[in-house]
Each structure stands twice: as C-alpha cells, then as structure tokens.
Amino acid sequence: MTADWSPLTAELAIWQQQGLTLPLWWRDDDAISSTPQLDRLSAMSDKLGVPVHLAVIPRDVEIGLVDYVSARSNLIPVVHGWAHKNHAPKGEKKSEFRLHRPLPEIIQNARSGALRMRTLFADQLCPMFVPPWNRIAPEVVNELPAAGYRILSTATPRTSPQAAPALEQINTHLDPIDWRGTRGLAAPETLIAKTAQLLRDRREGRADNAEPFGVLTHHLVHDEDIWAFSHDLLHRLLEGPGYVWSVARD
Hints:
CATH superfamily: Glycoside hydrolase/deacetylase
Mean pLDDT: 97
CATH class: Alpha Beta
Shape: globular
CATH architecture: Alpha-Beta Barrel
Low-confidence stretches: none
Largest sheet: 5 strands, parallel
Number of domains: 1
Strand content: 15-25%
Order of helices and strands: HEHEHEHEHEEEHEHE
C-alpha cells in the first residue's frame, strides 16, 4: 500500500508553525478474548507509545482477557455496551442502546455492563461507556452517570464537552475501515483528506480542539493494509503536533 500523505503533512506543518498541539487518543472495539490480533495491537501500542482504550463486550468477555489486560498497562479496558446485540428493526441502523425496547431494560444492561466489568477488571477499568455502533438515545445518555459512568464515547466531533451533567464526551474521529464496502481499508487518499480537514476545522475554530482526537480501530478484522495505515497515521500525528492523551485509571 502506498499513499500520498502530503495533504496531512501540509496541515501538520501549519500546526507546528503556529505552535498548536493536538491531544491524541486511541480506541479499539469489540474485544472478548486474548487473540493473536490482540497481541499485534498491544505490540503496536508499545512501539508507538500510545495506550489503547480497549472496548470490551461485558456479557461475553473471557477470563483470559482479564489476565491478559492485567499484565499490560498499555491496555485500558472500557465498557462496550452489554452484548453488542442489535435491537433495531429491519431497515434501521443497528443499535443496542436506542429506544427499541423498554428504557428500564436498556438502563439495566448499561448497569450490568459496568458491574460485570468492574468485578472483572477492578480498578483497572475506566468508567467510559462505548455504545455498539456508536449509537445511543439521549434518554439513555442521561442515565449513564447514575449507572457509574463518567465518560461517553461515540463518533464524530463533539458539540459539547459534556454529553450530560457529570458525563464527559470523548469521541473518535477516524475509522480506517470501509464498513459499507470492501470491509478492508477505505481509500487512503480519502482518509488522509478527511484527517487533514478535521484538523483544519480544529485549527480554524470550527471544532473543539480540547477534545482528544480519536483514532478508532477494530483489531479482530484488520488486514495488513489497515494495520499499516493505522500505524502510519498515529506515527505521523505524533511526529507532528500530537501528544498522547489517555483516561486516568479510576
């Protein structure tokens, strides 16, 4: 895979000329067990010096993953819904935490996710809620603090630092996978142009640069191109104005 990084290189040069800095974080979704792919993710995290906020599916997590994460300080477990089960009717976008079933049942799933993950990971757990498919109803968002969460993470630039009272919003901004097409790497030129535009929006005040810029990966489905692009993107951002941001362990 070859890619023309010049649009991003040019934008990063402007950031450096203006003395700007970019908080940078990394989230990876859908972990259940320790796998060779997770080994690779952890090794890449170590090499780059960027911790991974590992979104773990509470209902199905295996004890082996708990031991694996406990031995690696670069992996920060967060709560990824409950069962990663779609409850939306046919024809609607997939979701687990929109109002396609009674609200008390949905809230109970959020509470169960926090409880199971806290029981397994103890004080390693970060109190971040990541709804599957990055979709969640506002009514559910409002109940997350009472369920034990302090951060909500979905996708796209946030419109407010808080998703609800006592609930910070920390989103992801770039996912390199072409989910609606090949399910491989999206067109590199498109991804690079999108990243440059997202940074330009921050630099010119159209987006909140206090929000950490989030790169989203899914280690279980990566091919070689996705691994290579994700590494190169993170490396280039860190070589420029980026500095590592991570949630302090609770």
